[in-house]
Design a protein that fits this description.
Belongs to the homoserine dehydrogenase family. With 323 residues, the chain is an alpha/beta fold. The chain has helices spanning 13-24, 26-33, 63-67, 85-94, 104-120, 129-132, 137-144, 159-171, 175-184, 193-196, 199-213, 232-237, 299-322, and strands spanning 3-9, 36-43, 58-60, 72-77, 98-101, 125-126, 150-156, 223-224, 241-251, 254-264, 277-284, 289-295. Helix 1 packs across helix 13 (299-322) and helix 5 (104-120) packs parallel to helix 11.
Length: 323
């Protein structure tokens, strides 16, 4: 049986999840893509830290060692931050590797350039995991809404913020206490700034803007507010529910976006989306209003999105070869 050689850039929560899914779903993957999927290398920062990977997997902090592996076909990238991830992905594309990424900051900043470079090098980039983890919003837009014009997007794109607002309202608890709970449960990082200040959701809505409208608004024009700015009494006693809403629409020739806490009533489709779930509401020209909801964070949902991208890429390539 043919072997597809893969490398992981990053072995944190997401990278470790991808590694485990590949190991434990090997039989299904072989049936779906007609090949054995073999993780041959992992890029890490600290070579002295213990890693739970097979002995025959190259573990290194040198991207050049990985890209020199003969027959390497695909890179799963889950590094935090735009750099050095962008440089590594750029090099991998030149090397002829398909890319599957969960890096929302990198893709918000460089996705359009990387996609163009991928086309030039006849490889593909899967980026479903950059927006809402296990919620298949990217593929829905790309494949199921090609004839539709998407007129507006309203979305809950950060599970940490949604969890905090839900817990504060339901249990009448202060922000600081709920944040500590979110950190202890693994929903929030030790430094939760990107989540609670809206930066994470901002990157995601910029990715959707590029995908839907072929452009992004000027970043400085986006109204960006985090959930920490909302008075606790308002969350406890509001007649509606506070949600950290990312919104996107095109007005005339200009794309407008915002990420901010808003109060919605029980008639809004996002009213009942609670806890760590993400949800995206798409207002379309033909299909009407579509809502997609599911787990927006965590190792398994994100790994699921990345492996679904992998399957799509290699099934598409297999079909092209057969034809």
């Amino acid at each position: 049986m043919r072997i597809i050689k893969a490398a992981l850039l990053g072995l944190g929560t997401v990278g470790a999840g991808v590694y485990e899914v590949i190991r434990h779903h090997q039989e299904q993957l072989q049936e779906l893509v007609g090949a054995e999927v073999q993780v041959v290398a992992v890029l890490i920062q600290d070579e002295n830290k213990e890693r739970e990977v097979a002995n025959d997997v190259l573990v290194t902090n040198d991207i050049k060692e990985i890209l020199a592996i003969p027959g390497l076909e695909v890179i799963f990238e889950s590094i935090v931050g735009a750099e050095p991830a962008n440089r590594h992905v750029d090099e991998a594309i030149e090397r002829g590797c398909h890319i599957i990424t969960a890096n929302k900051e990198m893709f918000a900043k460089h996705g359009d350039v990387l996609l163009e470079k991928a086309r030039e090098n006849d490889v593909q980039i899967g980026f479903e995991a950059t927006v809402a983890a296990g919620v298949p919003v990217i593929r829905t837009i790309q494949q199921q809404l090609q004839l539709n014009k998407i007129e507006r997007v309203q979305a809950l794109l950060n599970g940490t913020s949604n969890f905090i607002l839900t817990e504060m309202r339901q249990k009448q608890l202060p922000f600081a206490e709920v944040l500590k709970t979110a950190q202890s449960l693994g929903f929030a990082e030790a430094d939760p700034t990107n989540d609670v200040e809206g930066i994470d959701a901002f990157y995601k809505i910029m990715i959707l803007s590029q995908l839907i409208y072929g452009e992004q608004p000027e970043w400085a024009t986006v109204d960006l507010k985090g959930i920490a700015s909302v008075p606790e009494d308002e969350i406890y006693h509001s007649e509606g529910r506070y949600k950290h809403m990312a919104e996107l629409k095109k007005v005339g020739n200009h794309v407008q976006a915002s990420v901010q806490p808003v109060v919605i009533d029980d008639q809004h489709p996002l009213y009942s989306v609670e806890g760590v779930d993400n949800a995206v509401v798409l207002e379309t020209s033909l299909a009407g209003t579509i809502m997609i909801q599911g787990p927006g964070a965590g190792s398994k949902p994100t790994a699921s999105a990345m492996l679904e991208d992998f399957i799509h890429i290699f099934q598409t390539n297999k079909a092209a070869v057969l034809n």
